[in-house]
Amino acid sequence: MYPEEHCIKAPELLREGGVGEEMIHAICSHAYGMHVDVKPEHLMEKVLFATDELTGLIGAAALMRPSKSVRDMELKSLKKKYKVKTFAAGCSREVIEQGAEMLGWPLDEVLQKTLDAMRDCETKVAEELQRQGQ
């Protein structure tokens, strides 16, 4: 409903739904510096901040592969796409790198862990989308 304002409208909507302030902070902090001033503080919030943009980039890279999957994507291949600033240009490398810095992890570690996580859940996500008719 609010694609450009989702982290601005989220607190109001989440409170109406009975969500606690800790969870609201976590959800809103993923857009820190872009749309909101809610800074990621806890590990989970920092991971979400670092990977939100990155999952979009990895998803776009997967669509370019013959398999259309992350299952056979290697870090080396992902890094090549990452370096091409015009590829998935809407996915901010600056935010991804800022997230890695917040976590104190090398960028390669953030890339690999995110790729591994997406591999682990790709089948379940596809099954759920199919179940929903999407």
Kindly list the characteristics that best describe this protein.
134 residues, mainly alpha, 2 domains, 6 helices, 64% helix, 0% strand
Could you explain how this protein is built, in words?
- This protein is mainly alpha-helical.
- It folds into 2 domains: 39 residues, no CATH class; 90 residues, no CATH class.
- The chain is 64% helix and 0% strand.
- It has 6 helices and no strands.
- The longest helix has 25 residues.
- The radius of gyration is 16 Å and the shape is globular.
- The two termini are 18 Å apart.
- The mean pLDDT is 91.
Number of contiguous helices: 6
**What oligomeric arrangement do these chains adopt?**
single chain
How can the largest sheet be summarized? none
> What order do the SSEs take from the amino end to the carboxyl end, as H and E?
HHHHHH
Helical content, roughly? 55-70%
Number of separate structural domains: 2
Which blocks of ≥5 consecutive residues have pLDDT under 50? none
Hey, roughly how much beta strand do the residues contain?
Answer: under 5%
Question: How many E-type strands?
Answer: 0
Round the mean pLDDT to the nearest integer and report it.
91
- What radius of gyration results from the CA coordinates? 16 Å
Could you say which overall geometry the principal axes of the C-alpha atoms support?
globular
Q: Give the structural class.
A: mainly alpha
Distance between the termini: 18 Å
